[in-house]
Amino acid sequence: MQAAHAACELVYRFGGLTDPRRWGKHGPHLVWLGVRDEVELASWATFLAGRCVAYREPDRGHELTALAYWGPRIPEFEELRLL
Description:
Layout: H1 2-13, H2 20-23, E1 33-34, H3 38-47, E2 52-57, E3 63-69, E4 81-82
Antiparallel strand pairs: 1-4, 2-3
């Protein structure tokens, strides 16, 4: 669920990314990747700075719970597990 919040925030901030003329009627592909903990997620947020949107869960003291990234696959993603 947290990843869906992050994806919605990405669309909200960068709405032009979902232009149907660019992606077709089904929109861009979504891929969920997992990390061990919030520390690792924060490390990814730093690595992807400017290329991702972070989601912080208000019900969990604004803990960083998800990132949404738009762009090409990068080799570093290979170390993450597919969910």
